[in-house]
Amino acid sequence: MWRLFYSLLLIFSLPFIVLRLLIRSAANPAYRARIGERFSFFDAPEFDRANTTLIWLHAVSVGETVAALPLVKSLQAKHANLRFVITTTTPTGSDRVRSLFGESVFHVYAPYDLNFVLRRFLKKIQPDLLILMETELWPNTIAACQQQGIKILLANARLSEKSALGYRRIASLSRQMLSAVDAIAAQSQQDVERLVALGAERNSTAVTGSLKFYLETDPHLSDRNHEAEPFLSVRQSGRQVVVFASTREGEEAIILRALSGLMTLPDAPLCLLIPRHPERFDQVAALARQQGFAVQRRSSAETIAPETQILLGDSMGEMMDYYGLGHIAFVGGSLVDTGCQNVLEPAACSLPVLVGPSQFNFASICRQLETAEALLTVKDAADLTQQLRLLLADPERRKRMGDAGKQLIRSNRTALPQVEARVAALLGLAG
Length: 431
Hints:
By secondary structure, the protein is α/β, with parallel strands linked by helices. It has 17 helices and 14 strands. It folds into two domains: 197 residues, 3-Layer(aba) Sandwich (Rossmann fold); 192 residues, 3-Layer(aba) Sandwich (Rossmann fold), CATH 3.40.50.2000. The strands form two sheets. The protein has a seven-stranded parallel β-sheet with strand order 3-2-1-4-5-6-7, with helices on both faces. Strands 10-11-9-8-12-13-14 form a seven-stranded parallel β-sheet, with helices on both faces.
């Protein structure tokens, strides 16, 4: 009954969903491209089904795509007959799939979670296994795969208390979805308990740790922009650099208030400000200039000027290059209530990490980094200013924090072989 109600609601919402894509495309034209793919109108490649095992992996956006990278690459290397179809829902996720995997996988936007769309998608793809990354639970997708005998793995699974409360409001539908999942590889014991409480089978759910600890396998950690401007001149400037990464709407105003307290320092740092969504680049640049900051944009590809206070990171796919310039990192999505972005990326670059109080997307990892004294939580603009001042004045502490974060990443690489084993078991693969 709940799934029927959900499907009807989704059907009635379709015109508004498409309208939202068109509205968002005013700022980012990629949102109006390939809309047909979302309804399963695309040309599927021809797979040799007699000699091929096909995995459909769904990674909603950039973070999930990067987390899936080590798993996909390892499985491709070990099993020559495996083929991957990777779906995302955002243009940034789509771009990342193409940059990380190239032609080694088939990429298409994820189908809308409607039976008639899914039937067309599954008929074209015919997967043997569906891997859902993290918390991508779609009732009709799971039901359609179960009905067709397609195995389902929830990999790198996490469920915050906030998300669990939402799923509890639709307890019957949540139980129906989770009981249909064949195996769950969860990031932490807390995730396991929340998932089991919602209806997952305990004997098919296990703690494997997070695939995001394998971040260094991402080729984007390489120093691709060593000779490019403004990266080259930032390195040569000798200035201390603070990276404000993946900031969200409303958060930049808080950060700019914090920065006003740093610009009075005799050796004020250069601040790299990288909004999470490209459609907001112009807005954030205008806001910083309105508040009196000297702003330069990465897209200008010009040498960094001595008077520049903020370098706006208005590019995609270069986050690790920005971190490579930094001495300290603040991770966005945390001073507004959106749950924080990936704190492991700066830790992998041996940077001390600052983050706001909203951490539910990376709650377990934030706790681990904080316990290791690699991460500090700041509560507001004033606290952010104070902690930045202290760290800028203490290079030895910065090094201790950066080393601690790097070591934590190295010591927590346990997930990949365990998730691989579950894939092999579900598909009956040797080795």
